[in-house]
Specification:
- Chain B: This is Sulfur-oxidizing protein SoxZ.
- Chain B: Residues 11-100 form the Sulphur oxidation protein SoxZ domain.
- Chain B: InterPro entries: Ig-like_fold (IPR013783), Ig_E-set (IPR014756), SoxZ (IPR030995), SoxZ_dom (IPR014880).
- Chain B: It holds the Pfam family SoxZ.
- The structure holds two protein chains of two kinds.
- Chain A has one domain (24-142): Sandwich (Immunoglobulin-like), CATH 2.60.40.2470.
- Chain A is globular and about 45 Å long.
- The model of chain A is unreliable at 14-21 (pLDDT under 50).
- Chain A has helices spanning 5-13, 26-41; strands at residues 46-47, 51-54, 58-59, 65-71, 81-87, 95-101, 106-114, 120-128, 133-142.
- Chain A is built from two helices and nine strands; from the N terminus they run H-H-E-E-E-E-E-E-E-E-E.
- Chain A is α+β, with helices and mostly antiparallel strands.
- Chain B has a single domain (6-33, 43-107), classed as Immunoglobulins (Immunoglobulin-like), CATH 2.60.40.10.
- Chain B has strands spanning 6-9, 13-14, 19-26, 48-55, 58-65, 74-80, 85-93, 98-107.
- By secondary structure, chain B is mainly beta.
- In chain B, strand 7 (85-93) and strand 8 form a beta hairpin.
- The chains are: A alpha+beta, B mainly beta.
- Chain A binds chain B through residues 63-65, 88, 91-102, 104-107, 109-116, 146-148, and chain B through 19, 32, 34-35, 55, 58-71, 73-80, 82.
- Strand 6 (95-101) of chain A pairs antiparallel with strand 5 (58-65) of chain B.
Amino acid sequence: MSLTRRDVLIAGSAGFAGVALFSPPSARANDEALDLVEQLIGRKATMSDRLHLIMPADFPTGYTVPMSLYIDSPMTEADHVRQMRVFAPRNPLIEVASFHFVPQRSLPRVSTRIRLAKPQHVVAVAEMNDGVLLMTTTWVRVATDGCA
Amino acid sequence: MTTPTPRVIVPSAAAKGEIFQVKTIISHEMETGLRHDDQGNVIPRKIINKFVCRYNETVVFSVDLHEAISANPFFEFSLRATESGRLDFVWEEDGGAVYTLSHQFTVG
């Protein structure tokens, strides 16, 4: 399906960007993601706008979907991110990767390519040095199953 | 199956304290263990499950990879130039095989 300008205008007038045409209500998606993270990690995470998961909203193949992940962090001994994990809840195997960073030595950002089986909210969780879990989600629509 | 071949793009020098970018890729099918062959048998999982970057023996960045990382795993990340020496890149495959690359790095 291709978006026409009219679609975008109609979606815009409803108060959403074009991407909202495809996505379920994000409040519900966030609740589901928060529950999922609590099940997987055993602790509660909080949604945070410090964490950025950049992916295309619409991508033709599920085999190689570009993904960039970063967090605003000074990366000092006293305040840094230990690891960032990515989950694809609608994949047959939902764990995607864990990225480990080192204060003073690496910046808390990474890019890679991932497989998605179907359109879904991809979830990223950052574990800070004090144990706090921050998370964010991004809606990605893929046209083909990248896990088949 | 092709032999996995790792490649790295990284500068050979940087100023002290400077941030530099590293791009790594290894040719690898990343067989997920979810697929079946023509006879209906499961094709066993064989993926790169770990990537580690060491800077003069200190781990400065690493990744635990699962099945959802695409074939030919690619990572782009950023490090701080602290001192001259060696960068080591290690990819670990299911079954224990290890693929490595090293890179001399000068901090001026």
